[in-house]
Amino acid sequence: MISALKIKLQKKDLLRVVVLVVLLGAATLGLVYAFPYIRDWWLDLTTDPVPEPTNKEIAVKVLDWMNENRDKSGRYLAKVTCKIEDDGMDCNAVESNQTGAPVIWAKFKHFEAFSDEDKSKEYLAQIDNDLDVYLDQSKVDTLQINFWNCRFLQEIYLSDKVSESIREKALKMCSRNVYNPLLSQGFTENFSEQEGYYDYVESVLTGDRSIYETADKSFPLSEQEPELISYAVYASDEAAQFKMTEDDYYLERAEYFANQAASIYVNETAENRFFGDSTKCILGVALLDLYRATANDKYIRFASEFGNNGDAISTTADVNAMAVCGMFYNEMFSELYYDNYLADRGTFVVKAKREFFDYDHEAFASPINNFGAFYEPTYGDDGYNYSTVDNSLLVYLLVGLSR
Question: What angle do the packed helices 388-402 and 339-356 form, to 10 degrees?
Fold first, then answer.
């Protein structure tokens, strides 16, 4: 009887031990799986968060990323394009002769703002080397521009913060500009005195024509948009060459190109064909450049329509428009001091950082490649473009907000 009771108790004890072992094993296994989450929770609780990079730090990350992205001749890439494939991200370099000046200028803007710092001195040395690359015809055979070139380089040439050697190199690089000859065919000296000349800039101010677009964007995009951009870019570059050389020939060409750009804009909007935000801002920059070169207020009065008319420029998710229009607003503020220019510029920069800056930090959207550069999504094919021009312009804005 006693022996049977002992056996029964031993069986119960054994069962308890088995249950205890199972429970301990399950708890241990649970801790193993739960440990990463517990660890992350504890680290979040006890570790100070990594501070968000400042505007100045972001500018440096972007400049350093662009400095690394060159072709074998030392030219800056036009862009890096990436696309999500089945086996991961596929990125490709797009080479160009045309994107040296924007990066050189962006580095100069950093140097101009922080010239006593070692990083800026490093950028100045890079500027000197970059200018040598773009003056070497064996590396860069031609500079047929598709965006501002002399407009960027004039700031270096007119600066008293760089050496005479760098200034002269900037002037020589500007002189290598090659324009599309088809867009110059109608130009003659004293063109504004020729029969049939019509001042499209003045027409907007006298009420003969209107630049106000309809809010209904169901109307088509103008097919002449690329031509307008070229005329506006050429106007800015010729105005820059006038400021660098004081040769009236360049000023007359600048006014011709500006009037051609204005004619396209005025005539197309009259037919309910509209233009993208970045195009309007490029035209606005050209008009502002002509105002600075001529002191004729018809140009800045036309340009100011883009900043003050709600239908003319809209806050957009287009990174190129944010970069170009941010620059336009910043420069318009330096002339007119309207607060709305600064407010919109700030909106663009904040949006670009929060949504389109490719960097691993909780303040920004999920990183794509962790490049430390701004990208434009290519909707529809899961792609991303990292444009050198856009990144250069955004560096300019970030530096300006850091001073």
Answer: 120
